[in-house]
Specification:
By secondary structure, the chain is mainly alpha-helical. The chain folds into three domains: 11-56; 68-162, DNA polymerase, domain 1; 178-352, hpI Integrase, Chain A, CATH 1.10.443. The chain contains 15 helices and eight strands. The strands form three sheets. A three-stranded antiparallel beta sheet has the order 1-2-3, covered by helices on one side.
Length: 400
């Protein structure tokens, strides 16, 4: 028979029907008595003491029997949907919750979620072959969601903040070689949207920025393109570029200016010939003037790379190529950061500025020339190590 506990310590009894021990905490400030269960009296006593310590330390919870899955679904429904997050961000949160967090942690009760649960989830995801960036994103979304749970008073602390996620390892970028670039642009020349590929190659803009570019923001006389808008990938609708660094001016090479003038003339004729035309002032449109979806542009890109005989990589790799080209031609990192629209120069340096074989070769040659110059100069002087070495070798030869 269970030993009688002192007042304020709760009680432990045997449930004959369930064949389990049951511990009941003292009533809380709302008059409720939480329960814990276990196969042994010692197990229940341990659980009961843990809950009492949490209550004394203020680590109380109002989550009740809510699971992590139930909470995340409520969080998505009540916080994300009505919020002001960009459409693509909302979509990525929902995808992370559905594909990763719910399968991995959904059954755990929110009130009982511990740092150990989160750490085990991260380890399991990595062992299952999930990419580090994917696991980092899952950890970040969980951290944001549990932060809201703390604000709602459901849990006393954010356990995801107590867990260190996988370390960041920059993904190796593979810019296109000069031969690949030539083949791609040759293949793009016969495409209806080929000018768009030329423009990405010459400016390094993002796909959403490319498809949201308007004629009103292009100064063909002065060779400048003002980047202020982007096309919502969930749209189609135009949105302002969301960051100050993203709003920028880009220089246009003369050959691109000529291509855009020809493209505009063709578009004007197409507008006149079309029965219906949706005028959005966009540079790149469908045959009736509507915005082009990212999926359609990616289809064009895949067709171009196949025709060029180049291993298919996303059109975003033209942006990596642009960043590398700036570095190879000595453009200062701060200028490259502005042209690429990065808020943090580390992004420019770590992700887009790929150190190519050409740059390594030039650096090796520069070091070779510098070292040879210094050693040669020292050898020519009196008492230089090189001169002394030659003298010692000559003496040794004479001795023999």
């Amino acid at each position: 028979m269970a030993k009688r506990r002192a007042s304020g310590e709760g009680s432990i009894t045997w449930d004959a029907d369930a064949e389990r021990w049951v511990g009941r905490l003292p009533r809380d400030d709302r008059g409720r008595r939480a329960k814990v269960k276990g196969r042994t009296e010692a197990e229940v006593r341990r659980k009961l003491n843990e809950r009492l310590r949490e209550r004394e330390q203020g680590l109380t919870t109002t989550a009740g029997n809510m699971t992590v899955r139930q909470f995340l679904e409520a969080w998505i429904r009540d916080t994300i949907e009505p919020g002001d997050l960009a459409g693509k961000t909302k979509q990525s949160y929902e995808l992370t919750v559905r594909k990763h967090l719910v399968p991995g942690l959904g059954r755990v009760r929110l009130a009982r979620l511990t740092p150990m649960h989160v750490q085990r989830f991260i380890n399991d995801e990595l062992e299952a072959g999930k990419g580090r960036r994917t696991v980092q994103a899952s950890h970040a979304v969980l951290r944001i969601a549990l932060g809201q749970a703390v604000l709602w008073g459901l849990i006393p602390r954010n356990v995801a903040k107590l867990v260190r996620g996988p370390r960041y390892q920059p993904t190796e970028r593979r810019p296109f070689t000069r031969a690949e670039q030539i083949a791609i642009l040759d293949a793009a020349e016969g495409e209806r949207l080929g000018v768009a590929i030329f423009l990405v190659h010459a400016t390094g803009m993002r796909l959403s920025e490319l498809l949201g570019q308007r004629w009103a923001d292009v100064d063909l006389d002065n060779g400048l393109l003002r980047l202020r808008h982007q096309l919502d990938p969930l749209g189609p609708e135009l949105k302002d570029v969301k960051t100050t660094s993203g709003r920028r001016w880009l220089p246009l090479p003369p050959i691109i200016i000529a291509m855009l003038r020809e493209h505009r003339a063709r578009q004007d004729k197409q507008r006149d010939d079309a029965g219906e035309w949706e005028d959005n002032d966009l540079i790149f449109t469908t045959r009736n003037g509507r915005p082009i979806s990212q999926r359609n542009m990616q289809r064009t890109w895949r067709r171009v790379t196949e025709r060029a005989g180049v291993e298919h990589r996303g059109i975003h790799h033209l942006r990596h190529t642009y960043g590398t080209t700036l570095a190879e031609h000595g453009v200062h990192e701060r200028v490259a950061q502005q042209l690429l629209g990065h808020a943090d120069s580390r992004t420019t340096r770590e992700i887009y500025t790929h150190v190519s074989e050409k740059m390594m070769g030039e650096a090796a040659q520069a070091i070779t020339d510098a070292v040879a110059d210094v050693i040669g100069h020292r050898a020519a002087g009196n008492g230089s190590p090189a001169g002394s070495l030659d003298h010692d070798l000559a003496d040794e030869s004479r001795d023999k």
